[in-house]
């Protein structure tokens, strides 16, 4: 098949997306497909008169590393210049239309909040992963939390704050996070009132809505969903502190154990809650749910990711590998499952 791997964009997770995109494109090429990497923001200019000619040039790409800090998006925007279709670069629509399917390797921002999926739907372009509605629900952490509560899925207590509003006297310690962010960018654990206000100031740099949650001491677990079934869960043990941006993407900063070192009953419970969370959010094809296992054995679902990372250190590929699905097969399986949305 001719496949466009769409990555990059203008999310703070841009670098993560490009790393995921390179790996996915190489894996799909290994499986015999003609896959090309396309940056959503920069596009392709010039594009041949027949966009399909681009796929004949498909070739393996060099892996990309991820820096310890999120990218400077102002510099990225300035480097392109022009406006074209806003944040969609030149040639993106034309090349995606020429593909059999678009493999979405974007993370955060418009890649996961449903806007891109709706845009592709309007242009009749087929893509991998969940539909726009599920992406929108999952991306807004406060909305997702309400749906979890309604579905009987345990989740930490929290409040939603808007920029400029008077912050409540929320019990400490607490967790402060941008409401629709990803990769733990802008997240902080506050132990004092000074830390709480500093965390709010930092989180509001990214968004106008911030979620404040109770802090639950426990072990971090994550579990992938593929084709409606849960994969083996993974336990996440950061080298120090919590599972922030640097710990997620720098090799050696975090110990990740798959399958998680929990008893069979807890494993089954995590997998059950993963599937229930995906159902509550109307997710399809693949996703990943994150949990805390409290010291008393209680499980709390934090959120679900509609486009989980597919980098060298990412978690969904680890769960798939434990289930006997190697990385190239996982990428191809995502494509095959996604095509069923259009050919039921």
Query: Low-confidence segments, ≥5 residues, pLDDT <50?
Result: 243-250
For the secondary structure, the number of strands is 13
> Judging from the principal axes of the Cα atoms, what is the shape?
globular
Write down the Rg: 20 Å
Q: How many DSSP helices?
A: 12
How confident is the prediction overall: mean pLDDT? 90
Strand content: 15-25%
Task: Report on the architecture of this protein.
By secondary structure, the protein is of the alpha+beta class. The chain contains twelve helices and 13 strands. It has helices at residues 14-30, 73-80, 92-98, 109-112, 115-122, 132-139, 141-150, 193-203, 245-249, 264-280, 315-322, 327-339; strands at residues 2-7, 34-39, 101-104, 158-162, 174-178, 188-190, 209-214, 218-226, 229-230, 234-238, 254-257, 286-294, 299-305. Helix 1 crosses helix 12 and helix 5 runs antiparallel to helix 6 (132-139).
Task: Give the helix/strand layout.
Layout: E1 2-7, H1 14-30, E2 34-39, H2 73-80, H3 92-98, E3 101-104, H4 109-112, H5 115-122, H6 132-139, H7 141-150, E4 158-162, E5 174-178, E6 188-190, H8 193-203, E7 209-214, E8 218-226, E9 229-230, E10 234-238, H9 245-249, E11 254-257, H10 264-280, E12 286-294, E13 299-305, H11 315-322, H12 327-339
Parallel strand pairs: 1-2, 1-3
Antiparallel strand pairs: 4-7, 5-6, 5-7, 8-9, 8-10, 8-12, 10-11, 12-13
